[in-house]
Amino acid sequence: MQLQTDPVQAGFDPERLQRIDRHFAAYVDDGRLPGWQLLIARRGVVAHFSSHGKRDITTGAPIEDDTIFRIYSMTKPITSVAAMMLHEEGAFELTDPVSSLIPSFAEQRVYTGGPARAPQTRPATEPVRIWHLLTHTSGLTYGFNRLNPVDEIYRRTGYEFGTPDQDLAGVCDDYAAMPLLFEPGSSWNYGVSTDVLGRVVEVASGMGLDEFFRTRIFEPLGMTDTGFEVPPEDKDRLAALYLADSAGKATVPKNSPPTAAPRALSGGGGLVSTAHDYHRFTGMLLGGGALDGVRLLSDRTVRYMGRNHLPGGAHLDQIANGSFSEVANAGKGFGLGFAVVEDPVASHVISTPGELSWGGMASTAFWVDPAEELTVQFFTQLIPSGTHPIRSQLHQLVYQALVD
């Protein structure tokens, strides 16, 4: 990818930008990462684009401009945008019960105690609403959280990282049959909420999630390499996936080639993408829902999504129940699909109020800073995402290079 503007004209000090590359090159040189790619854009145009290391350590293939990455939970903002597009069309209200579109959610129960083999539950007094799915306040969870017997119930049912071999409708019925961690709207927990939201998109639109993404988001924005699978002719462009060993080094290959779409299309973590494509998506968010004459959302809707929607205006560190998060929780609220910076001082990381962000399980990350007209994306392929402080360090290094 060619730079689209002189970094100086975009407000960056070129020598300070090189600090970022040198810092993360050391991650590759000492084995902490296999390779990485970074894209920084200002006012919608690329001001810095760099790569270092390998997309496959075994073959020695380098990270290239068109390398494809598993973006995992960076899928969630895309699914949230899809849902809000349908909301703008009047398909549902945010306060509608999910059961109005997925009937199996009509009789939810809340966990009250006991082991996973014999949980005690009571009927929920509040239905799971579409707003709860968008904000992770539904009471749904992930099996890999390993914090509560409900997490174990997910694992015992076959839902730890992947899903059984069935379609998304069947998967969501399974989720509905398991107890909620808490009364919907009373706490925050990272879980399968956005996967259920993907099913809401399917039912409300009458289209498969892959078709909706392709026809309503990817093709209009020119995101030609984003999808639930990698075509056979492009499989060599896919970066290899690695697990961190006990020393935090990227030495354990993980066989996870998304060369065929699964039956259950995960709106919470199923997409692959490229730096070019995700730049188009973040550019649309920075543009208030529009990019290059294509409008997906009203600017009012995007601003509304970027408000803190947590109950009582709480921050994540105040309301989250200790589950995994793709951001540091202090000083951040949660909007409709991504974390929202409210207090940079509380976060102890240089950032801007109103910044939108999230990341993926393989240590990918992005943020959109409307005040600075800045978008940043970082791609690599190392699980788990919290192995190294990549995201906080990236923040401090990007903002120290911005000098206008």
TrEMBL record:
Domain of life of the organism encoding this protein: Bacteria
Residue ranges of domain Beta-lactamase-related in the record: 20-385
SUPFAM superfamilies: beta-lactamase/transpeptidase-like (SSF56601)
Record's keyword annotation contains Ribonucleoprotein: no
InterPro entries registered for this protein in UniProt: Beta-lactam-related (IPR001466), Beta-lactam/transpept-like (IPR012338), Diverse_Enzym_Activities (IPR050789)
Annotated GO MF terms: hydrolase activity
One Pfam family recorded for the sequence: Beta-lactamase
Protein name, UniProt field: Serine hydrolase domain-containing protein
Organism of derivation: Saccharopolyspora gregorii
Keywords associated with the record: Hydrolase
